[in-house]
Amino acid sequence: MSTNTPPPVPLTLEGAAVLHQLFRIDWSSWNAVEPAKKDSILEEAKHVLFTLEGDNSGLFSILGHKGDLMMVHFRAGFPALEEIERTIGRLALNQYLVQTTSYVSVVELGLYESTQKIYATLLERGVTPHTPEWTSGIEELLATQRKAMTPRLFPEIPSRRYICFYPMDRLRGEQKNWYMEPLPVRAKLMHEHGLIGRRYADVVKQIISGSIGFDDWEWGVTLFADDPLVFKKLIYEMRFDEVSAVYAKFGQFYFGLRHPVTDLEKLF
Questions:
Q1: Fewer CB near the last or first residue (10 Å), C or N of the chain?
Q2: What is the model's pLDDT at position 171?
Q3: Which DSSP state fits 160?
Q4: CATH class of the domain defined by 15-107
Q5: How far apart are CA 121 and CA 94, in angstroms?
Q6: Do 177 and 249 meet the contact criterion of CB atoms below 8 Å apart?
Q7: Cα–Cα distance measured from residue 159 to residue 153, given in angstroms and rounded to the nearest whole number
Q8: C-alpha span between 62 and 64 (Å, rounded)
Q9: Are 18 and 80 a contacting pair, CB within 8 Å?
Q10: pLDDT recorded at residue 210
Q11: Is 155 helix (H, G, I), strand (E, B) or coil?
Q12: What does the mean pLDDT of the chain come to?
């Protein structure tokens, strides 16, 4: 690669640290607990979970066999997520929960279009890629975007009724490899892909989180909506887009309903 060739890696902006926790309730053990003790256990849990909810966590019931409950947490950094895990682990209620899986990621905004403009600007200035000047130049040009996008980088969990969460990768297979496509090609495809999501922006809140280096998949997608059928329509339409049809691989899907912490007795 020539020293004047821009890197193939698109720039990203990172925001809130995200933790999805999936739990199964140990019904046999829970049903054996005396009613008075159940009340005490749930009161303690409600007090703690109410505080977490106020700090940008959400409680969801999961439909299907993959779990009973999901908690989603958005925080300013990973140390706060570690404290959440310890806090939940100390609850008496935790004795009756089996964590079936979890997902760690960070809110990510991909900047395919901006990346090409930033790289071109720096090359026009005569800055060599991968030098300290190149790195500082990128930070300078990203600073304004980072400030403008703060609400998207550190989102509040929407007060929508339904949630859909799934992890995904871009293919690195035998015939198609997303990471070997030129940056301009990937940028064009992602632009077209994004247009579909924007058409649903009024009815679906979509939060993309990057998990490369944090978990087994490359991204997590969390969708919030008041009409659950919108998830099906959006994801189905995206299947026909080239980015998904050719280059996407999906993990398990988790679908559930939002519950305030005051619903805890009902859920148990």
A1: N
A2: 83
A3: -
A4: alpha beta
A5: 54
A6: no
A7: 18
A8: 6
A9: no
A10: 98
A11: coil
A12: 94
Residue of 166, 200, 247, 254 marked catalytic: 166
Residue-wise pLDDT for 195-243, tens only, equals 888 888 899 999 999 999 999 999 999 999 999 999 999 999 988 989 8
**Element spanning 162, H or E:** strand 162-170
Residue indicated by tokens 């053990």: 29
Spatial CA neighbour of 89 closest among 135, 52, 136: 52
> Any idea what the Cα angle at residue 224 is, between residues 59 and 9, rounded to 5°?
110
d(CA 13, CA 84): 24
Domain boundaries, the chain: 15-107
Give how far the C-alpha of residue 133 lies from the chain's centroid of Cα atoms, to the nearest Å: 32
Q: What is the DSSP string of 55-121?
A: TTEEEEEEPSTT-SEEEEEEESSHHHHHHHHHHHHHSGGGGGEEEEEEEEEEEEEE-HHHHHHHHHH
pLDDT band at 113 (very low <50, low <70, confident <90, very high): confident
Q: Which residue has the tokens 């550190």?
A: 154
Spatial neighbors of 17 by CB under 8 A, at least 6 apart, are: 74, 75, 76, 77, 78, 80, 81, 104, 105, 106
Q: Could you please report the per-residue DSSP string of 202-230?
A: TT-EEEEEE-TTTSSSSEEEEEEESSTHH
* Alpha carbon distance 247, 176 (integer Å): 7
pLDDT band at 5 (very low <50, low <70, confident <90, very high): confident
Token pair recorded at residue 42: 């749930």
| Residue 119 annotated as catalytic | no
